[in-house]
Write a structure and sequence with these properties.
Chain A is mostly helical. Helices cover 49% and strands 0% of the residues of chain A. The interface between A and B is large, with 60 and 83 residues.
Chain lengths: 113, 448
Amino acid sequence: MTDWKALAAARCPDIPPDAAARIAPSLEALENAFRPLTEQLTPEIEPAVTFTAVVADVRDMGRDAQPGGGGAGGAASSIAGSGSHRDGTGDSASLPSGPDTASSSPASDKERL
Amino acid sequence: MTIEQAAKKLRAREISAVELARESLRIIHEQQPRLNAFITVTDDLALEQARQADDDFARGIDRGPLQGVPYALKDLFRTRAIRTTGGTKIYADYVPDYDCAVYEKVRFAGAVLMGKTGLHELAYGVTSNNPHFGAIRNPHDPARIPGGSSGGSGVAVAAGMVFFAMGSDTGGSIRIPAAYCGCVGLKPTFGRVSRFGAMPLGASLDHMGPMTQSARDAALVMNAIAGYDSRDDSSSAEPAGDFVRNGFSLKNLRVGVPANFYCDRVVPEVAAAFAAALNKAEAAGASLVPVEVPDPAALNVIGRVVLMAEVSALMEPWANRRGDFGPDVQALLDQGRLLAATDYVNAQRLRRRAQREWAGLWERVDVIFTPTAPILAPLIGQTEIGWGDDQPAEDVRLATTRFVRGINVLGLPALSIPFNSNSLPVGLQIVGQPFRDDLILAVGDLLA
């Protein structure tokens, strides 16, 4: 089993030793529960989150390249960009034409859980 | 008063949107010192939007049942020019320059924003005991937690401050406060409601949904917010349809009743309320079908690995601001940073496998009933719950999420409705198959 305190010291030295000691039991319990599950996996099972190729939207790419702004605003923009909730800009705030219009947009190859 | 009742009164000119907004603001300001449901109250904007709703009525413009109805947003939904904190010191002064999709849609429907509700820091926890904005308190007993992470939204609805509030649910964060506060909470099917502009937590687990006083109200809100959004990579193009079903009956409905997992370590009050819910469904014509649910404990483990890895990856840029996070959130962030990439990928592979196993259930049942939580709302600061001398004590956070977290892993729609209890509120969880949000709402409407 993993030596979580040693791993923290080696990989994340900013985690203080006492903090690593406090979280080690939780990680150990999680590992004990998780490791046997992985033994059930067979090679053909793919991850539930898969990459899908899509035609790039040049306008979106331009928006993504814009700075998110300074201070906390910039930080929050980074968060949106890091997740799957795409970041936006001020000009994305126009009212939708209505719920039905949004739902009738063209379908794409969206991964569905 | 429900949304439906308010909508009728507004159209009959028995009340105006401005009057509704003023009454909502009065209750919010009266209750805020006791319950701390809000981080920001938008008094001026509320009255401005209410006047707009009244003007629209006067000009014959009817945007649907939400027009003129007071509501609130969990403070992780971005709102242009209104502070959006995510319940964390990191974003305490963040003022977005754009609106999230949910706010766009609800505003288009004419609803009136009262403010932004409090939450567990980063939406990463279930107590809503926020170290930066103060503990949010349960309206049924202020010494107890409201549940979380959408604690402020649950309180705002249960205490009658607003007609509905939006929450987010990554591992139970809508359904738990709904159960502990005694209101309705819907976690829609993954991809059903756009996440665009909502601060993310676990990218593959986050769901946005309504909290209301009735299941029918939740359906009305869903009619306004559901639908495809190209700005959200997980958004589904599956047609949203109408979430309100009239003339629905429980006759011949096949209700799956888990014979495993969901009956273990349940306090008597919850067990009694759950039994009463089953009896009521059966008396109304539903068939109770005992089912063996595929390894929910494994789902919870998979969900924790996925969530911790996703959140810690997201928050990695702020790893050097240890003093700015609460101790519980910091501990989770630290744990996620130590997980192996292979464990994350394998958790996502196990998720796919579990999804296939659960798919077989829907050939035998239409919905599955479980308690939302196995315990009643814990006291603020309580960390463990005892299960008797022969069993170890359980972490309150793990107990609270035990019946709900796995449903996020599967992306299934799940509704929590308050069910009769003589003590603190108890929630009944109704789980459906993907994109049958309308069915679980109709079932909840008849049972509540």
